[in-house]
Amino acid sequence: MKSSRSFSMHLLSFSERGTGERRTIPDRCPPAKKPVLSWPNPDESVTASSSLNQLYQERAAYRLPLYSARQVARLTGLSASTVQAWTHADDHEALVQAASPEGLSFLNLVEVHVLAAIRHQHGIPLQRVRHAVQFVRQELQAEYPLAQHQFETDGVDLFVRALEDENLLINASRRGQITIRQLVEAYLRRIERAADGFPLRLFPVYASNPGFVPSGLPAYIVVDPTVAFGRPVLTETYVPVDVVVDQYRAGDAVADIARNFNLSAPAVEEAIRYELGA
Predict the structure, then answer these.
(1) What residue ranges carry the coiled-coil annotation (predicted)?
(2) C-alpha torsion 68→72→73→76, nearest 10
(3) Which residue from 60, 177, 269, 270 could staple onto 220, CB 3.0 to 4.6 Å apart?
(4) In sequence order, what are the beta bridge partners of 100?
């Protein structure tokens, strides 16, 4: 059944994607197979005594450790080792405070997504990034400072000022780099929020290269912890990406998959690119 939600971001143009030449997706999957990420078993993620509806109403689902470092890495275009270094649960100086030693939450994912904006573009020392995050956390008095709506309104300026120095600005300008502020704001626009500013859904940026800015990037894939236990799903029908790609691996043609799941062919192709890293 097609979702009644509005997906305005889905209509964004491919022309501004800026990720370089896109690989052509063959109509059928070649014989070689690639392991897929394993997602939490629902019974392991939520105790039997908990009501999912109640969890969602209280927004507890957004704090559940649904993701491994590897899964967050896949959703943010980072390496798993980078995500692990940023999110050590027992490290008080961690850039992102992990939900638990067992995994990362959706709010953790959103924070890593924001940090990925500067990681992809600027050679900023990790210690400077850590200082900036700690500064914003202290100023905003927030458990998840980079995921808070207040970060968009007040925190970006604090964050950028803590990150940048005169030499960095001059060097970036000489290289023609987009500013840190522009990058962070572009990544923040990929977060859909409730009326009170709480982050509800993330349209992930899972691939980039130098000079990349996600302005105009299509939003075929979305992550919502209240849908499919936080697995990446396609915005058109909310069918999980891995379910669609399993059909492709089984030898089904893109057109047949699109018809079976009531999806557009570009959405199916994007699911394949995401899952297979094409």
Answers:
(1) none
(2) 180
(3) 270
(4) 103
| Whether the Cβ atoms of residue 267 and residue 220 lie closer than 8 Å to each other | yes
pLDDT: which is higher, 173 or 274:
274
Is the distance from CB of 3 to CB of 192 less than 8 angstroms? no
pTM for the model:
0.77
Q: How far is CA 255 from CA 143, 222, 247, 248, 266, in A?
A: 45, 22, 11, 10, 10
Q: Is the pLDDT of residue 54 over 60?
A: no
Residue type, 23: R
- DSSP for residue 18: -
CB 177 within 8 A of CB 119: no
* Six token digits for residue 221: 């894939």
CA distance 179 to 173: 8
- DSSP annotation of 200: E
